[in-house]
TrEMBL record:
Pfam families: START_2 (PF19569). InterPro entries: START-like_dom_sf (IPR023393), START_2 (IPR045736). Coiled coil: none annotated. It comes from the Bacteria. This is ATPase. It comes from Flavisolibacter ginsenosidimutans. Residues 1-125 form the START-like domain.
Length: 126
């Protein structure tokens, strides 16, 4: 099996880091756009989509800055991360997503994230 590579996506968003972080780090916020159902117990997030389920643990987080998840089934060095940055020039909030995929799947995975983020922006009123 080929080793997955990390890729990064950036999305400018019109909302405060505080509000955005609620949608990235809390089960109720994630359930609005990322998965059909999200529960959290003891640092493990339980995600479900159309009847299938997956589990991820929080590796690291800093309030209003970032949260990094690790899928329990994935290799230890792989993760997905939501980070919130501010543009120094425009002072705009930027959502930065880091994830891993096989090289030939990066484009498809990026499209999937684009679709998910579109749902997030709809919920945020962007």
């Amino acid at each position: 099996m080929s080793k997955k590579q990390q890729y990064t996506l950036e999305y400018p968003v019109r909302c405060s880091p505080t509000i955005l972080y609620e949608f990235l780090a809390n089960p109720s916020g994630l359930q609005e756009w990322f998965a059909d159902k999200v529960d959290e117990r003891d640092g493990i997030y339980y995600f479900s989509w159309n009847g299938s389920e997956d589990e991820a643990e929080v590796m690291e987080q800093e309030e209003e800055k970032f949260i990094r998840f690790h899928w329990l089934h994935a290799p230890k060095d792989e993760f997905f991360e939501f980070a919130i940055e501010k543009s120094e020039v425009t002072n705009q909030t930027i959502l930065v997503i880091k994830d891993f995929a096989d090289k030939r799947e990066v484009k498809d995975q990026s499209r999937l994230w684009d679709h998910q983020v579109k749902d997030l922006f709809h919920r945020l009123g962007n």
